[in-house]
Write a structure and sequence with these properties.
299 residues, alpha/beta, TIM Barrel, 10-stranded mixed β-sheet, 8 helices, 15% strand
Length: 299
């Protein structure tokens, strides 16, 4: 990655994916068909905290609905729930895309939280009355839990982007499982003060990019994530803002790829993204598009 990156501890190229179904009415989360034990050592079970985490997650869902009704916007779209039975979604790595309606887009932001850029990104989203899904790096969440709590409190979605954003192509399968598990644990604790191991599916999870996994994720990696209780969150379009190119260049790159619906990938920790995101939102509004908020099952 370019040395101009502002995010903490990142060192890999970005690509990801999976497959999916969605429904608009949140549902109770059933047990996932395939259970797996946590990796041994520091990732052992720390107890069932369902009564703590689910009410707080539901509170964020309710805040998003309240904020949308109090802040009318041409961009604000519906909240949809990803079916808990799905394994993943996202078309970039040759997986089926989310079944969005024409003109519907999901804004996702990887690599945070970052105190230099996350607050400004949140301010941009609030000014447009829309919600994004932040895929957070576990060790960044540990360093800046106040930013994770702000993301949740303002009604944005959260997912995990591994614990340390290592190149998974250089890790053993056990090492990958530990990175997934530790990342979800760190994000949950930062957001809610506890980690509920029994919640299945627990979180959306986005793989860090790895040249060794292009153009598609190996099926066994998707199975590892699913076994840990995660839905693999891919994407459909990226401006490759991690390059920290001038925002106009990133904007042109995205427009050349943008279809009539899908998941857009942005990156936290990039100075150009603070200018790029409003440009993209202006373009979506010009097209009469809507920004959709994602949730899993009960939100």
């Amino acid at each position: 990655m370019p040395s101009s990156r502002l995010d903490e501890g990142m060192n890999a190229v970005r690509t990801t994916d999976g497959t999916s179904r969605m429904r608009e009415v949140p549902a109770e989360l059933p047990p996932i068909a395939r259970e797996s034990e946590a990796p041994r050592g520091r990732f052992r079970r720390i107890g069932r905290m369902r009564r703590v985490i689910r009410p707080l997650a539901a509170a964020g869902f309710a805040l998003a609905a309240t904020a949308a009704s109090a802040c009318p916007s041409a961009l604000a779209g519906r909240t949809v729930a990803v079916d808990p039975a799905t394994h993943g979604f996202g078309a970039v790595q040759k997986q089926p895309p989310l079944p969005l309606q024409p003109g519907e887009y999901v804004v996702t932001i990887d690599d945070g939280p970052n105190p230099k850029t996350t607050p400004a990104l949140l301010d941009i989203l609030r000014s447009r009355c829309i919600a994004a899904t932040f895929f957070l790096v576990g060790r960044n969440a540990e360093r800046h839990p106040e930013l994770v709590r702000r993301i949740v409190a303002e009604g944005d979605g959260i997912g995990s982007h591994s614990f340390s954003h290592r190149d998974f192509g250089k890790l053993s399968r056990d090492g990958i499982a530990e990175e997934i598990w530790a990342g979800m644990r760190a994000v949950d604790i930062a957001a809610f003060g506890a980690f509920d191991e029994s919640r299945r599916p627990r979180r959306l999870f986005r793989f860090p990019g790895s040249p060794g996994f292009a153009p598609a994720l190996p099926p066994d990696l998707v199975a590892i994530a699913n076994g840990a209780g995660a839905i693999v969150a891919g994407y459909d379009f990226s401006p490759e803002d991690w390059r920290n190119s001038p925002p106009e260049e990133s904007f042109r790159r995205l427009l050349a790829r943008l279809g009539d619906r899908g998941v857009i990938l942005f990156h936290d920790g990039q100075s150009n993204t603070l200018e790029l995101l409003p440009m993209v939102l202006d373009e979506l509004e010009r097209r009469g598009a809507r920004v959709v908020r994602l949730a899993i099952g009960d939100g």
